[in-house]
Amino acid sequence: MPSPLSAPRSNLPVPSTYDPVAARVRGFGATVFAEFTALANATGAVNLGQGFPNFSAPDFVKEAARAAIAGDFNQYARSAGHPRLVQALAQVYGAHFGRTLDPMTEIVVTVGATEGIFATVQALVDPGDEVILLEPFYDSYPAAVTMAGGVPVYVPLRAPAGSRRAADWTLDIDELVAAITPRTKLLILNTPSNPLGKVFHRAELAKLAEVVCRLNLTVLSDEVYEWMVYPPVEHVRIATLPGMWERTVTLGSAGKTFSVTGWKIGWAIAPRPLAAAILMAHQWIPFAVSTPLQEAVAVALEDAAPRDYFRWLSDMYLAKRDRLISVLEEVGLAPMTPDGSYFIIVDTRALPVPVTPGERRDVAVCRWLTQTIGVAAIPPSPFYSEAHQHLTDNLARFTFCKTDEMLAEAARRLQTIKRVR
Predict the structure, then answer these.
(1) Which of 242, 270, 304 is the last residue of a domain?
(2) How far is Cα 131 from Cα 125, in angstroms, rounded to an integer?
(3) Pairwise CA distance, residues 107 & 279, whole Å
(4) To which H or E segment does residue 259 belong?
């Protein structure tokens, strides 16, 4: 009998349509950052939308990269991380976690924190598992969950009307518990948060930790803005709370820490079983991360403490935050003062911006700010599930990780708002 594989092609069933794209990515489009950066470039707007520093990285960091390349650190690195870097990370973070970290088994270096998110979700989430996302969320979280076959479940933070502080946005623990089912596997936490700039305080984290331990969940704690926390607020790592080390993955980022977002060096710190699972996923995603840049970040971390670098970074961003807040208040964009990160959410309800039917107001406002005022901001609705996007209608997000000259030009242009209100 002839094999079916040898049958004439004309006898094979013909699909009605040709669609090679996997269902898991069909719903994805361009990110809001790509969209508004392109709009800013096209209109010549000052880009206070996308959160990347437009100033130079510190000289000691750049020199470390030059020296690493010249020193021939140019072949594949150890998959879990270049030895000098994981040792430096263990040294820096051991004091903050209050424990001795094993650099070889409790740290995985990733292609930025974004791959850390993706690899962690791939390692811990099976198809059908539910993952709690606190809104607003960083926009890669639901994509990572979807790609793993997981199911995002959304619980929004809420703030009282007229709030002027990111700290006022709080999580209703009863609402969180109601969202958890027997299929819930993971909760993703972001502190300090993007886009709010909220820093979860110890009492909030203690309540969250109690739920996580009682209901046997794991936490992915995205802490990439950890060094941008403004006095008197303290950054508390949820992994340091009772019972939480064993069930927490903590993410960090050299891009945020040293203003080198293009280097894409991040890390996951976790107990050995979780770190091993992340490594199993990571080895099939990039296998290894740029060796010379890992060497450079290791040197930068070794040099950071003697230079009092982390305090300098926080002080530098605090001055920029206060400068932009002053301008926003002056022109009637009521800012919600962040305690961390380099983002500010503002209330835009005072702006008389026309909205096209079917368009979200926050998107219309940010297009207007970019095209008419000449300052780009980001609409926060992409940081929410569709059911909760109405919560962002009167909000916009600005960033202040820019040079003082760029912030001054943005301030000059924002003055135009006073003439149109």
Answers:
(1) 304
(2) 8
(3) 9
(4) none
What secondary structure letter does DSSP report for 170? B
For residue 399, which amino acid is it?
Answer: T
Domain boundary among 283, 304, 325: 304
DSSP 57: P
Sign of torsion over alpha carbons 321, 327, 329, 333: negative
Whether residue 52 sits in one domain with residue 125: no
Write the CB contacts of 67 (distance below 8 Å, at least 6 apart in sequence).
296, 299
Question: What pTM does this model have?
Answer: 0.94
**335: its two tokens:** 């800012």
In contact, 81 and 97? CB cutoff 8 Å: no
The secondary element (H helix, E strand) that includes residue 252 is strand 248-253
- Is residue 231 domain-shared with residue 335, that is, in the same domain? no
β-strand 375-376 against 107-111: which pairing, if any?
A: unpaired
Same domain, 78 and 108: yes
- Residue 236 CA to residue 315 CA, distance in Å, equals 19
Residue in the structure block whose two tokens are 């901001």:
377
Q: Name residues whose C-beta falls within 8 Å of residue 377's C-beta, 6 or more positions apart in sequence.
A: 36, 48, 49, 346, 365, 366, 369, 370, 396, 397, 398
> How many Å apart are CA 375 and CA 139, to the nearest integer?
22
Range of the structural domain that residue 389 is part of = 23-57+309-420
Residues 251 and 151 occupy one common structural domain: yes
Cα–Cα dist 116/270, whole Å:
12
For the stretch 142-158, pLDDT in tens is 999 999 999 999 999 99
**Which ranges constitute the DSSP H helices of 215-344?**
254-258, 272-282, 291-304, 309-330
Q: Using DSSP, state whether 284 is helix, strand or coil.
A: coil
Q: Which two tokens stand for residue 333?
A: 């964009």
- Identify the DSSP state of 133: E
Is residue 379 one of the residues assigned to a domain?
Answer: yes
Per DSSP, the three-state class of 131 is strand
Q: For 7-56, what is each residue's pLDDT tens digit?
A: 556 677 766 788 899 988 888 888 899 999 999 999 999 999 999 999 99
